[in-house]
Design a protein that fits this description.
About 35% of the residues lie in helices and about 20% in strands. It contains seven helices and nine strands; from the N terminus they run H-H-E-E-H-E-E-E-E-H-H-E-H-H-E-E. The protein has helices at about 1-15, 20-30, 70-90, 140, 160-165, 180-195, 200-220; strands spanning about 35-40, 50-55, 100-105, 110-115, 125, 130-135, 170-175, 225-230, 235-240. It has a six-stranded antiparallel sheet with strand order 1-2-6-5-4-3. It has a three-stranded antiparallel sheet with strand order 7-8-9.
């Protein structure tokens, strides 16, 4: 009901140190953002080969005096992490090795908080007054810069080719390099299956069959996109999927690749 929604919103407002999520937080972190899947093979021995990285520029303009907006965001995310860690620890039982907890590291420039105790991934965020970085890897957060990762785009890359053909003037872009996805699925299908098979051969075979279906779908096209151009009086949206015109190199980011 509307009353329940309002009570939840008021509770969330207290967690965000008096700021409203929709009026005071979202407008300041959703104006300039990027989310990528990053190939992290070789980053560390016990590391997942693929991780998520999100970059959200914090626009402090127009906020009220007092605690900076990043303080509210940090408090809210820390509360959510702590609650999630408590739930996961409870589900795992009383074994000390099963505890999932939040670890924090603060420097002069930023604060990193990570949810430690989850196999393969360590969900974490790094925040300061100008940027919020969110990832499934604390290690990845420790090496990426505050500035968003802008993939280097060779003149003959798949991304450059599609941009020239379909969305040359777009200011917003969601991009899937299906050819690169196929490559990752082929290389990492056994690792992915191990994460979800729950220790059973039957589960592993079922997962491999699902992955094979995803590969089949990804063979239909080499890339898919959703691009938009924003103006004061209109929004122009282009979306689609297509095959390469010729042999092209995938655009890369963080030296390994963002897709």
């Amino acid at each position: 009901s509307s009353d329940d929604f309002q009570r939840g919103r008021n509770l969330l407002k207290s967690v965000l140190l008096g700021r409203d999520l929709f009026n005071d937080i979202v407008p300041h972190v959703m104006r300039d953002w990027t989310i990528s899947l990053v190939d992290t093979q070789g980053l560390s021995a016990d590391h997942a080969p693929v991780n998520v990285l999100g970059h959200f520029a914090i626009d402090a303009g127009g906020t009220d005096a007092g605690l900076p907006v990043d303080g509210s965001i940090d408090n809210g995310l820390q509360f959510a992490m702590t609650a999630l860690g408590a739930v996961l620890s409870h589900q795992r039982g009383t074994n000390r090795d099963s505890v999932v907890m939040v670890e924090s590291q603060t420097s002069r420039d930023s604060t990193i908080r990570a949810l430690v105790g989850i196999k393969n991934w360590t969900p974490a965020y790094r925040i300061n007054s100008s940027v919020l970085l969110v990832s499934t890897s604390r290690t990845l957060l420790s090496i990426v810069p505050d500035a968003p990762i802008t993939p280097s785009v060779p003149a003959k890359s798949r991304l450059a080719d599609f941009e020239g053909r379909y969305f040359r003037s777009a200011s917003q872009l969601a991009w899937l390099d299906a050819a690169r996805l196929r490559s990752v699925l082929v290389q990492q299908r056994d690792w992915i299956a191990r994460q979800v098979d729950q220790g059973s051969e039957e589960g592993r075979e079922r997962t491999l069959k699902h992955l094979a279906k995803v590969e089949d779908v990804a063979k239909v096209f080499d890339a898919a996109f959703l691009a938009a151009t924003l103006a004061e009086d209109h929004v122009h949206v282009v979306f689609g999927a297509a095959l390469d015109r010729s042999e092209l190199a995938p655009a890369s980011g963080l030296e390994r690749g963002a897709y």
